[in-house]
Hints:
The protein is built from 10 helices and 8 strands. The protein has helices at 14-17, 40-50, 55-65, 77-87, 109-121, 138-145, 149-152, 154-173, 214-223, 275-302; strands at 2-5, 36-39, 69-72, 98-102, 127-130, 177-179, 196-198, 204-206. Strands 5-4-3-6-8-7 form a 6-stranded mixed sheet. A two-stranded antiparallel ribbon has the order 1-2.
Amino acid sequence: MPLRFTPIMDTDVMSVHETESGYVSGSGSESSLPEIYFTKPHLAFLNRQLQFLEPQEILRWCITSLPGLFQTTAFGLTGLVTLDMLSKMKIPRPQMVDLIFLDTLHHFPETLALVDRIRSEYPLVNVHVYKPDGVDTSEEFARKHGDNLWQTNDELYDWIAKVEPAQRAYRELQVAAVLTGRRRSQGGKRGDLDVIEVDEAGLIKVNPLANWSFQQVQGYVKENRVPYNELLDRGYKSIGDWHSTQPIKAGEDERAGRWKGQQKTECGIHNPRSKFAQYLQEQETKKREEALHKALGNLEVTA
């Protein structure tokens, strides 16, 4: 049975059908973009071939093979390397890969300063910034959703700050495939990462530096003088929101500073369906059933 991937478009109830992975489905798509068909054996074949290629070769394959391609990034080292590699390929404007940055309103000031520097250093690259719906500052976020939501309800925080903005970006930009900064050497759930994969909503995710170590990434950054987050010089290796990121000690895993002391290892965007997303879907299903029951009742009355 072939796997079918369609560009991500609007649906009647986005908040219900989408998952913590942050990727919207193509169930309501009427896009003019071409659809992509892979069989499972074909996908396995692609991964066997791509794993032996250099990241630049993988990126070139993506540009020529995947419509609706974007790069999602929080401007970590791997994402910056991907950005720099793409900038050196002399890609014509129509094929250039735009960036999607989710501004959770809780990033470090150093991260936001880096975004401005990236815009200056790579002026041809479009950076699409998406924030939590209806708010523009952390103060507005707290007034609307309560103080320290990441502590009182971390799944709800992930949904509001990351997943919903991500699905909105994918819908509005008609995203069909994304480049990520995930690598096997980051450990945890990423240890057996494929170069190309498909999430449960049908979005193609490509991890062009999946085979690289932190040392290789760091070496590329230094050799090519790629702008990077100043926090990396202060003991940080993986940087997210200020409230869930700490420096790491020598010998610790690269992502050990994320959600320290918790079982959590992913922010929600790369996770499967969350309990909160399931709850939303159950509520919407219940609402639709009630509406259908009411409509049938009205038909019986008129009959």
